[in-house]
Design goal:
Layout (H helix, E strand, L loop, with lengths): L19 H17 L15 E2 L5 E4 L4 E2 L35 E4 L2 E5 L5 E3 L9 E2 L5 E3 L34 H18 L9 E2 L5 E3 L45 E2 L14 E2 H10 L3 H10 L1
Antiparallel strand pairs: 1-2, 2-3, 4-5, 5-6, 7-8, 9-10, 11-12
């Protein structure tokens, strides 16, 4: 049934409106329809179409624009009727600020909480695409390179650059002092007991001269002390019995059948080969050593 309106006439007491009986018949019809949709309590049995206003005329539900005005206070929890379905805001329609008196926000299976001192606590790991910097813009966590600069660590130890900066201890064997002491002990022990065993590697003198070449398995002749002088010709040799001298008239002894390849020096034999028979003939025919030289030169 449509809403029935009472005709109240064009003016007061003019008598051109609905009679009293007709007017209250309409009233009863309207209430009958209203109570058919209402059980007499504040709960409704049917939908209400239209806007809802507060006592101060504030629009609570704007039926014209299909909006709910939340400028007022909310008394009670705001709980959606189904799980994981609705959003608060969107990527283009965002809320400005969020004020919470509690200390925990639940994000999926993780929590973000804050203690009384304002320190944040995360139940899961923290992953960020942006670097973390201090109040003075100092880079603390370099998320782009997944690293933390050593320079920002507080209480970081000073790393020594030489062994001079290392304190001697019983479990530290490689400071300069300890290394020298250990070497001296070994050298003293070798000097006292002698060395028994193989040495592998090269040996150098105090001036870095290579004495034993362990790489090429050799010893350079130039580093040997007391080496003999090797003669370069026969005039530096001491003449032994039975050998030829410049004034000797003794017979030559030739075990190999000939005399060959002597270095000639001041009237000594030249590097030529003569047979023993020829030599005997020339010796026999020679009247003296000078004649022997002449004969030999003519061969």
């Amino acid at each position: 049934m449509a809403l029935q309106t009472i005709n109240i006439g064009t003016s007061a007491n003019k008598g051109d409106g609905d009679p009293i009986r007709t007017a209250f018949t309409k009233v009863n019809a309207n209430f009958t329809e209203l109570f058919a949709k209402h059980d007499g309590t504040v709960a409704t049995k049917a939908d209400i179409q239209g806007s809802v206003f507060a006592d101060d005329s504030t629009v609570i539900i704007d039926a014209v624009s299909s909006k709910v005005n939340l400028d007022g206070t909310v008394k009670g929890n705001i709980i959606p009727d189904v799980d994981v379905t609705y959003d608060i805001g969107s990527s283009t329609k965002r809320f400005k600020d969020l004020y919470l008196s509690g200390n925990t926000i639940h994000l999926g299976t993780s929590t973000l909480s804050v203690d009384t001192n304002g320190n944040f606590s995360f139940s899961g790991g923290l992953k960020s695409n942006n670097p973390i910097v201090g109040d003075d813009s100092t880079l603390l966590v370099d998320t782009a390179n997944s690293s933390i600069p050593y320079a920002v660590l507080s209480g970081a130890p000073t790393i020594p650059s030489t062994t001079d900066n290392i304190t001697e201890a019983t479990n530290l064997y490689y400071t300069d002092v300890r290394a020298d002491a250990r070497a001296d002990l070994k050298i003293t022990a070798l000097q006292t007991a002698g060395f028994d065993g193989d040495i592998k590697g090269s040996v150098f003198g105090d001036d870095s001269t290579l004495l034993v070449d362990g790489v090429n398995n050799s010893i350079s002749y130039s580093v040997i002390s007391g080496t003999p002088t090797i003669p370069t010709n026969n005039n530096t040799l001491t003449n032994g019995a039975g050998y030829i001298t410049a004034s000797s008239t003794e017979a030559l002894t030739n075990k190999s059948g000939n005399v060959s390849m002597f270095t000639n020096d001041s009237s000594y034999l030249t590097a030529e080969t003569i047979t023993l028979t020829t030599l005997k003939t020339q010796v026999a025919a020679s009247t003296d050593f000078a004649n022997f030289q002449t004969r030999i030169a003519a061969l």
